[in-house]
Amino acid sequence: MAHSKAWLGQVGDTDIRLLKVFKAVVDCGGMAAAELELNIGRSTISRHVKDLEERLGLVLCRRGRGGFALTDEGQRVHADTLNLLGALESFRTHVGQMHGQLTGTLRLGLFDKTVTNPAARIDRALRAFRAQAPQVRLELTIGALNVLEPGVIDGQLHLAVVPDHRRSQSLQYTPLFDEQMHLYCGREHPLFARDPVALDDVRPADCAGLAFHSPNMEVTRRFGLKRSAMVNDQEAVALLVRSGGYVGFLPDHYAAPFVAQGDMRRVALAELGYTVDFVAVARASSTSDRLAQTFLRCLEAAHGVQVPWDNPPDS
């Protein structure tokens, strides 16, 4: 494919539109899946991607019977597209804020399985924020600690609610709530019918644990448990526990329905439990971002804590 000299000129509205189509195709995993997202036909989407390739003078993706896949150049262009569109969104947001408006997109991260925690009042904070900023678009990402914190640090997320663990000087921390964790086993596990048990009875058991550095990883190592299965979220821990082959730490509020159904029970050893403190994390340099500050104030009101920022958002 010949390189296009047109791309060396000014980036215009047409280029931005083509890049947005390309981003949607990548996000959806292919052109067919992007039809609903873009509300245009597959042939039109294909033509837009081809137009973009011609303007860039690059092959961005392979499509055919083998499925959709980005080329190396496509991966780099996609990364640059995210940066460019993010910068445009930030520009629109900051200009709106200078006019006293809360506009743009608020990008939030949330650690998994917090919705069933009665101490977590994030829903109240979201309701209050929506009342204050009805024009703001929300993007909510549920993910693991090793994904959410880097996402805040590199600016992909405005803030995230995560377990408090290994604090970074790049982040600002606001305490919110906690949850109680205990070791659980499934109905078919040998420990299910044993009460009481000793720690030496538990140590030989296969344990399912979170694969990233976390309070879960620290506790399993401290008790000398045998980490035989590595997972990335607590739903996977619950699945392995229910299988009867593994024990694993789960939040009490999340395990409660499985316990009520008789599918699992807490291992009868009181010391095999710990408390996880949850915090809101934002970049330490984000104190001038009104979207992040406003939502943190909503979290503060919902959880009855003090946000450690001196400057309140403009009224």
Description:
By secondary structure, the chain is α/β, with parallel strands linked by helices. The chain has 11 helices and 11 strands. The radius of gyration is 24 Å and the shape is globular. Residues 309-315 have low confidence and may be disordered.
In short:
The chain is of the alpha/beta class and 315 residues long. The protein has helices spanning 13-28, 31-38, 42-56, 72-98, 122-132, 145-153, 199-202, 215-222, 234-242, 252-260, 290-303, and strands at 61-62, 69-70, 105-111, 137-143, 159-163, 171-186, 206-210, 226-231, 247-251, 264-266, 273-283.
What is this structure's SSE topology?
Layout: H1 13-28, H2 31-38, H3 42-56, E1 61-62, E2 69-70, H4 72-98, E3 105-111, H5 122-132, E4 137-143, H6 145-153, E5 159-163, E6 171-186, H7 199-202, E7 206-210, H8 215-222, E8 226-231, H9 234-242, E9 247-251, H10 252-260, E10 264-266, E11 273-283, H11 290-303
Parallel strand pairs: 3-4, 3-5, 7-8
Antiparallel strand pairs: 1-2, 5-11, 6-9, 6-10, 6-11
Using brief descriptors, characterize the structure shown.
11 helices, alpha/beta, seven-stranded mixed β-sheet, single chain, two-stranded antiparallel ribbon, 41% helix, globular, 315 residues
Radius of gyration: 24 Å
Count of extended strands: 11
Overall average pLDDT: 86
Output the number of helix runs. 11
Give the proportion of residues in helices. 40-55%
Beta-strand percent range: 15-25%
The outline comes out as globular
The biggest sheet amounts to: 7 strands, mixed
Structural class: alpha/beta
